[in-house]
Each structure stands twice: as C-alpha cells, then as structure tokens.
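Hi Y.,

Following your request, here is the sequence exactly as I used it, all 82 residues.
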Amino acid sequence: SKQKKRQENYMRYSIIAAFMFLIIICLIGCFIAINSRINELEYEIAQKEIIQNEEIEQVKKNQRITAQDVDFLEKLVVEGGK
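Below is the corresponding structure, written out as tokens. Let me know if you'd prefer a different format.
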C-alpha cells in the first residue's frame, strides 16, 4: 500500500516535471523567436533610415546646385546689364 502510494506520487511528480520541462522549452523557444523577429525589425528600420538619410542628402545636393545656378544667373544678369 505504501509502495503503491509512493509509485503514484512518483508518477504524478514525473508527469508534472515533464510538463514543466515542456512549458520551459516552449517559453525559451518563444523568447528566441520573438527576439530574432525584433532584431529583424530593428535591422529593417535601420536600413530604411539609411536610405532616407541618403535621399535627404541627395535632395540637399540638388538644392545646392540650384542655388549655385541662381547665383550664376544673377551674375550673368548683373554683368550683362553693365
């Protein structure tokens, strides 16, 4: 009777331990999956920021060229008027 109870307790605890192990493994797997997805998103955001910064620099360069053109045209007008 005592031995049977001991066996039942052992079975109960081993099943609980197995479930706990599975739950822990699932939690670790979920953590790894979420973490890798976060890293992917951060990388994508960084790439988009780099592209946006390059586009902004290109627009600034184009604006600078336009300003130089305006200066050149002003000089032509002033010198042409003399």
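Residues 2-80 form one domain.

Thanks again,
Q.
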